[in-house]
Amino acid sequence: MRRIATLARLDLTPDEIALFADQLTAILAYAAHVQGADTSDPALAADSTVEPLHATRSDDLAPSLPREVVLDQAPDADRRAGVFTVPRVLGS
Q: Which domain holds residue 6?
């Protein structure tokens, strides 16, 4: 967990390291459990008695915020280009 925190440039307390290590262990255990699922029979996946994992909803159009309003609220934006500027993360 310390190595991951270093790579992510996170300054974690010992309590946070212990908490996140436990959470990461649980996530990896669940991923291993999912990997063990039998996917050899596609008919099982299409079983109508099983609740779908995702629900769909209608895609209602709604107005978004005007770009100028959003850029005016951004701490560091290039208003002429109409984009946000952020600190470089990769390759720095």
A: 1-36
Which segments within 1-91 are labelled E, that is strand? 77-78, 83-84
Q: Would you say 46 and 52 are in contact if contact means Cβ atoms under 8 Å apart? A: no
65 found inside a domain: no
**Residue 88 resides in a domain:** no
CATH number at residue 31: 1.10.20
**Rounded (5°) CA angle 13-19-25:** 130
- Of 68, 62, 92, 69, nearest in space to 82 by CA: 68
User: What six digits make up the tokens of 52?
Assistant: 């779908």
Q: For the segment 14-66, what is each residue's pLDDT rounded down to a tens digit?
A: 999 999 999 999 999 999 988 887 777 766 655 545 555 666 777 889 999 99
In a domain, 85, yes or no: no
The reply to whether 75 falls in a domain is: no
E strand spans, the chain? 77-78, 83-84
